C-alpha cells in the first residue's frame, strides 16, 4: 500500500503541483505587466535565437511606444482583420474556434486556430509557435488570465507592441519604420490596413510585398476599418 501511495504521489501529485506552479508563474507575470511593459516575449526570444544561429550579431527591430502613440488607423485595421469582436468577447471566440476545429479535422492536422487577439497575445508572451491541442489548452488558460487581469486597452497595447511584423521586426513602431520610414503614430489608413493584413504570415509578406493577395485583402480591410470598435 505504501508503495502504491508513493507511486501515486510521483505520477499524479507531483505533475499536478508542477502544472499549478506554472500557472501561478504565468499569473504573476500577467499581474506585473498590468503596470510594467514586457521587455520581450517568448516568441521574440525564439526568433532572435533563430536569427543568431545564422548571424551571431543579429538583433531584433523593436521599440515600445505607448497606446496613445499608435495610430488609431492601425488599431482599427488590426481589429478588423484579426478579431472584429475583440471589445465584446471574453477572450475566446468559440464560434471561430469551432470553424477552425472542423477545418483541422478535414485536413487531418492543425492548420487553423481561430485565435482572438487575446489568444495570440497569450501565445506570443509565453508559448511557442508550435501547433498542438495541448498548447492550445494552455493558451486558453493564459487567455482567460489576461482578460481577467487586464483591460482591453492594455491587452491591445501589449499586442501591438510585441506582435511579429517581419523578419526580426516586432511591434508597431518597428513595423512603421521598417516598411514606411515613419512612426506608428503617423501611419495612414492604407498603410495600417496593409500592416494588419501581414500579421498572419509576417515573414512571408516581408519578403513578398508585391503579393496580389496582400493588395486585395488590404482593400477589403480598408472598407471594414470604419466599423471596427477600438478600446
UniProtKB/TrEMBL annotation:
It catalyses: [GlcNAc-(1->4)-Mur2Ac(oyl-L-Ala-gamma-D-Glu-L-Lys-D-Ala-D-Ala)](n)-di-trans,octa-cis-undecaprenyl diphosphate + beta-D-GlcNAc-(1->4)-Mur2Ac(oyl-L-Ala-gamma-D-Glu-L-Lys-D-Ala-D-Ala)-di-trans,octa-cis-undecaprenyl diphosphate = [GlcNAc-(1->4)-Mur2Ac(oyl-L-Ala-gamma-D-Glu-L-Lys-D-Ala-D-Ala)](n+1)-di-trans,octa-cis-undecaprenyl diphosphate + di-trans,octa-cis-undecaprenyl diphosphate + H(+). Its EC number is 2.4.99.28. Residues 58-225 form the Glycosyl transferase family domain. Pfam families: Transgly. It is an enzyme of class 2 (transferase). The chain crosses the membrane at residues 7-28. Pathway: Cell wall biogenesis; peptidoglycan biosynthesis. It is a single-pass membrane protein. Keywords: Cell inner membrane, Cell membrane, Cell shape, Cell wall biogenesis/degradation, Glycosyltransferase, Membrane, Peptidoglycan synthesis, Transferase, Transmembrane, Transmembrane helix. Its main location: membrane. The keyword Glycosyltransferase applies. It is found in: Cell inner membrane. Gene3D superfamilies: Biosynthetic peptidoglycan transglycosylase-like. Belongs to the glycosyltransferase 51 family. This is Biosynthetic peptidoglycan transglycosylase. It comes from Undibacterium aquatile.
Amino acid at each position: 500500500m505504501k508503495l502504491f501511495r508513493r507511486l501515486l504521489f510521483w505520477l499524479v501529485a507531483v505533475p499536478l503541483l508542477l502544472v499549478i506552479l506554472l500557472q501561478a508563474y504565468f499569473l504573476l507575470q500577467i499581474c506585473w505587466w498590468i503596470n510594467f511593459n514586457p521587455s520581450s516575449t517568448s516568441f521574440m526570444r525564439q526568433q532572435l535565437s533563430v536569427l543568431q544561429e545564422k548571424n551571431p550579431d543579429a538583433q531584433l527591430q523593436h521599440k515600445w511606444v505607448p497606446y496613445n502613440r499608435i495610430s488609431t488607423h492601425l488599431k482599427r485595421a488590426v481589429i478588423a482583420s484579426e478579431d472584429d469582436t475583440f471589445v465584446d468577447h471574453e477572450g475566446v471566440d468559440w464560434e471561430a474556434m469551432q470553424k477552425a476545429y472542423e477545418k483541422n479535422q478535414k485536413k487531418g492536422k492543425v492548420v487553423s486556430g481561430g485565435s482572438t487577439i487575446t489568444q495570440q497575445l497569450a501565445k506570443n508572451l509565453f508559448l511557442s509557435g508550435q501547433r498542438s491541442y495541448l498548447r492550445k489548452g494552455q493558451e486558453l488558460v493564459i487567455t482567460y488570465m489576461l482578460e481577467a487581469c487586464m483591460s482591453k486597452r492594455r491587452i491591445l497595447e501589449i499586442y501591438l507592441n510585441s506582435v511579429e511584423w517581419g523578419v526580426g521586426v516586432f511591434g508597431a513602431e518597428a513595423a512603421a519604420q521598417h516598411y514606411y520610414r515613419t512612426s506608428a503614430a503617423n501611419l495612414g489608413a492604407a498603410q495600417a490596413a496593409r500592416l494588419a493584413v501581414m500579421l498572419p504570415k509576417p515573414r512571408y509578406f516581408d519578403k513578398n510585398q508585391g503579393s496580389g493577395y496582400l493588395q486585395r485583402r488590404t482593400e477589403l480591410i480598408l472598407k471594414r476599418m470604419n466599423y471596427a470598435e477600438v478600446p
